Amino acid sequence: MDSLAIAARDPVAALAERGRRGPLGIAFSSSVPLEVLDAFGLEAAWLPVLPADSTPRADGLMQSFTCTYTRAAADFALAASLPVGLVAHASGCDAQTALQGILLGSLPMASLKLPIAVAGPSATRQARGALREMIAAAAALLGRDPDTAVLSEACALRGKVRARVTEAFGEVAAGRMPAVRAYETALAAQVLAPAAFLDAAAAPAPGPATSPEGRVRVLLSGAHVPSVRAIEGIESAGAAVVLDDTETGTRGASRRVRADAPDILDAIADSLVDGMVHGPVRVLPGRGRIDRLIENASDAGVGAAVLLHHRCCDPHAFEAPALTDALREAEIPSVLIEIDRDSSLSARDLARVQALVESIA
Amino acid sequence: MGSSRPIETTKRLPRLIRNQVIWSRIAKRIGRPVAWCTSGGPVELLLASGIVPFYPENHAAICSARGIAQGLAEKAEEDRFSHDLCSYFRIDYGSFTTGRTPLGGVLAPDLVLVSNNICGTVQNWFRVAADHFDVPFLFLDTPFSEEPCTENDVAYARDQLVHIARESARIAGRTFDEKRLVPWVERARDTVETWKEVMKTASAKPAPFTSFDAFVHMAPIVSMRGTRRALAYYRRLLAELRGRAKAGIAAVPNERARAVWDNIAIWPAHRELKKTFRDAGVALVADTYTGAWGGVRLDPTDPLTGLARAYCDVLLNHGVKRRTQELTGLVREYSADGFILHSNRSCKRYSLGQYAVRNTLSEATGVPGVIVEADMADPRSVSIDSIRQRLTPFFEMIGAHS
Ligand code: SF4
Ligand code: SF4
Asked: Does ligand 1 lie within 6 Å of residue A70's CB atom?
């Protein structure tokens, strides 16, 4: 295993390593611009789904109907074993939105009040104001302002990281990279320092690219991919993930910051509104998201879809019936897998993916 | 101590609501557009354009109180909506897709108006409804905040209100005129103020009015805010309650202890719970749910900015800090001996953070609190026995007998 695979499979160790270098700047959402946390001199990372058989610290603060992602992330941040300089979260689903209040007494929290309705000039204005408010709150907590020179560099570097993740999924669609490798890349990008990630990602991928030939081409949709093992499970059932629609994968990596913008903070804020592919947490005009997804699935020659949802994730649960209907209309059968604490698929879920694959094959 | 007899004004409530339903149907028939609106939606904009509002959340609560919630929720689940989604949504979905409602027929919308100032559920729920009826979806996005809302937040909300006002006027075949908004905002403000006074009567000892009454009497403040009928109703109720307070007429005979409630009522167990409290001599003197409508501050001098501020500022658009402050204020103002937090599995926005609230609130007020697990509307997630098991020791702790 190379360093990307190691970081993706053991994110806690990767974060511990970074914590030894300095205080962590933890983001609970892909909508928190990590470049800003970098500019504060923090070891910035966006938490992936962390393996958690139990989450005692979080369970003392939030009910069991909070999604596992939020509970595991909160539990990690609350563990006294690592130095946490700042925890940043962005408004989104109710679980994420509630976090600041829940963790406020226990952790240094900064909140980014991004618009939920992401269209039009007023949303952009709101995002610009909200980003400045978040920076001011973080500066007050940390006792220092962000370094503007570092911010420009970090912005460029983080842009390269996201571009590399996007490229990896492009290679998957073209059959040049196994999906498992693309998810390793995406998960590693969340926890490694940007320079270390780019170095590791520049090296040729270990092992041959397995071709999706002969397997059912699958769209994977959901919020946070729980682990690389979940992808391995899906693929072991005879599927080949060729198209991604997850926060971990293409959505989280889609944000683009205009390099020629006169004001870097405005450019970052704009990228969070109209410079990224949004999931169902945000409100877009019409049925834009589902229509686009179906179009992409048809273009990618997808034969089936796996909806990998976290239990109690309202935004994805609301979308599921309309999405599965639209997929069915496009003659793409789908299966909805609901995951809770397990980071890999249960035997029952694997059987369901297998049944889906067999129904097509 | 004090005697007890039913509140007279309550008798007028069914007729008030029935008339509202009848009026909505007539209005629809004569061509007035109907808007489905969230309880925190800027209804004043609809009213000023002659649009008739209808509140699916109220409707779901009525379905639950009338005992038809389970079948309706199951329809949503059959249609692949997760059982973990808000039961108000599942009930309402079941109703509008099957036509089953206790109101004599589904009042189909011509538009929907949503604000996420109460939760992130409603934007999805009303999108599903807008798609089902193929009608426009108008959305007021109010940035959630732990701290008071900023001028940036207010400006953002105001921009959207201008758009909503113009769009709803266009749908109603009118042109938006801010001046026409003023009387609606004034009446809404007066109604909110009167409702606040109504709730304050429960600070008297013994309390002439409890949250169990408020849960029922809140219907007009949610669904008829801004109308003359609602204002007149609350003025009458206030006069009666002030008289009862003066005469020492108790809502709970032999009131021995007082408690404050957080979160939505538990509709499937409303009657049993009311009796449980009554038997124990515990007056539920205040709550954050019905109290939220007393906290809305409207300003007719600059109606749009005032509405923007008011709708950003509603209780559920703020987190733990504000809720703790609110509850601390209620415990003190109403001389409560304890508090009850309803951990409502349907409503994440209301429930997440309650563990933190419990600890800080107990520290701040020195009174004990208890968390009860239930659901506001789905009877399958409500066990009166387990609620009683939690309440019994709590009642003992605050000096009541159960
Ligand atoms: S989007 Fe879903 S999975 Fe992600 S934090 Fe929110 S509820 Fe949890
Ligand atoms: S009960 Fe809670 S989640 Fe459901 S609509 Fe009301 S505020 Fe939203």
From this structure: yes
Facing residue for A101 by CB, picked from B80, B153, B356: B356
Give the best residue of B77, B78, B82 to mutate against chain A (max A CB count within 10 A). Answer: B82
Residue B86 domain flag: yes
- Indicate the SS3 state at residue B372: strand
Q: Which residues contact A110 (CB under 8 A, 6 or more apart)?
A: A86, A87, A88, A89, A134, A137, A138, A141
Contacts of B119 in chain A (CB under 8 A): 94
Ligand 1 centre distance from Cα of residue B88 (Å): 20
Token pair in block for residue B143: 């940035």
Q: Do B120 and A320 touch (CB under 8 A)?
A: no
Q: Measured between alpha carbons, how far is residue A195 from residues A2, A86, A97, A163, B212 in Å?
A: 16, 21, 31, 14, 60
How close, in Å, is residue B124 to chain A by CA atoms? 6
> What CATH number corresponds to the domain at position B106?
3.40.50.11890
* B44 within domain boundaries: yes
Fold of A213-360: Rossmann fold (3.40.50)
Q: How many domains are there within chain B?
A: 1
Judge if ipTM > 0.90.
yes
Low-confidence stretches of chain A (pLDDT < 50) are none
Contact yes or no for A35/A268 (Cβ under 8 A): yes
Question: Domain locations in chain A?
Answer: 213-360
Chain-chain contact of B352 with A94 (C-beta, under 8 angstroms)? yes
pLDDT in tens, B353-397: 999 999 999 999 999 999 999 999 999 999 999 999 999 999 999
User: Could you please report the per-residue DSSP string of A300-315?
Assistant: TT--EEEEEEETT-HH
